[in-house]
Amino acid sequence: FLQLKKEGKVFNFGVSNFTPSQFLLLETACKKLGLKLTTNQIQFSPVHYEPIYDGSLDQMYMKGVVPQAWSPLSGGGIFKKREVLEKVAVRRGLTKNDVDVVALAWILKHPSGVVPVLGTTKWSRIEKSIKAVSFKDKLTRQDWYEILVFFRGVE
Q1: Contact, 89 vs 98, CB < 8 A?
Q2: Tell me, what DSSP letter sits at residue 80?
Q3: 109 within 8 A of 79, measured Cβ to Cβ
C-alpha cells in the first residue's frame, strides 16, 4: 500500500465484500500506516438487501466511508420480480419499463450515500441511470419501504 501511494499510482484505497469486522480490522492497520480506507464495494440492490441488516451500511455511514454497490440491478434479477418496481414507477410518473430507474433510485435514496457501480457500456442504460439520480427525489419513504418489504417477502 505504502509503496503504491508513494509512487503516486493510487490516491485512495478501498475494499470489496468486507464484512463490518473485516473492514474495521483493516482500517485499524491502515491508520497505523497513515492510510485511510475510502470505500467498501458490496453487493447491494433491492434483491440483495442484506447490507441494510448486517451492519455494513450503518458502519460506512458512521465512518463517512462511501459505499459502492456492485450488481445494483442484481444481474437482471430485478426484471424477474418486478411488480412493485412497476407499480412505484407508474405511481411516480414513469413507465412500467423503468424498473431499472426505480431500483437505482432506491439504492441512491439510502442515507449512507451508496454509489451504484454500473457494468454497462450501452448508452441507453447509462441514460436511464442518470435519470435515476433525479428520480430518487420523487421516491418517497413509503415507496422505499414498500420495495424493501416486497423483496424481503414479509409484511
Answers
A1: yes
A2: T
A3: no
Q: Does the model's pTM come out above 0.90? A: yes
Residue 109 φ/ψ region, left for φ over 0, alpha for ψ in the -120 to 50 degree band, beta for the rest: alpha
pLDDT higher than threshold 70 for residue 154? no
**155 has pLDDT over 70:** no
- pLDDT per residue as tens digits for the range 83-123: 999 999 999 999 999 999 999 999 999 999 999 999 888 88
CB atoms near residue 5 (< 10 Å): 15
Kind of pairing between the strands at 115-117 and 13-16 = unpaired
What single-letter DSSP state applies at residue 97?
Answer: G
> In angstroms, rounded to a whole number, what is the distance separating the alpha carbons of residues 68 and 59?
13
Could you count the other beta carbons within 10 Å of the beta carbon of residue 67? Answer: 23
Tell me which residue of 61, 55, 47 sits closest to 18, measured CA to CA: 55
